Amino acid sequence: MSIKTSLGQCHFVDCVKAMKELETGSFDLCFTDPPYDQPLLDRENPYENYMVNHEWLEEARRVATTVICTPGVNKIYDYPKPTWTLLWLKPGCTTHNITGGFSTWEPLLYYGGNTIYNDSFRTTITKPRGMKHPCARPVSLWLQVLRQLKHPITSILDCFLGSGCTCEAAEFLGIKWLGFEIDETYKEDIVKRMH
User: Fold this and answer.
1) Rounded distance between C-alpha atoms, residue 176 and residue 195, angstroms
2) Number of structural domains the chain divides into
């Protein structure tokens, strides 16, 4: 099953399998928010989780010139070393951190070669009304990041489309996009953001 617009389409498939079908370098950017609040699959051998969680990153780096992803504060060191780390400031955020306090920032890991003019972004995190996705990202953040890239983006891949933030930003800016989402529960969220 898929959802289409004149600029892009979303397929409800496993992203790793789907990316293996794409040509190397076929996208300017992969901008995605991988699931990171999942419990460890194997607490005795966390390295296995690393391997499972990052197969997508290897494929994304193959098919896109630049990859930007949100690993979550707690998972930042579980990822391969990025080219740079961007900062998303979330004033007024009430997300608990592991120390018992609140986390008012989040990293965006940046892999690749497109120059980015600014490495810190500030936007509130308000869940759009009626969204089923537990972690719907604000389109304002995606738009800020996309506007700071030196080289124009003509194509975006989002391998964890979730609530459809990337497709909404791409549609707004007139950029071709492709999204993968394994969970059809979020189909309504994606359709809302696309229209």
Assistant:
1) 15
2) 1
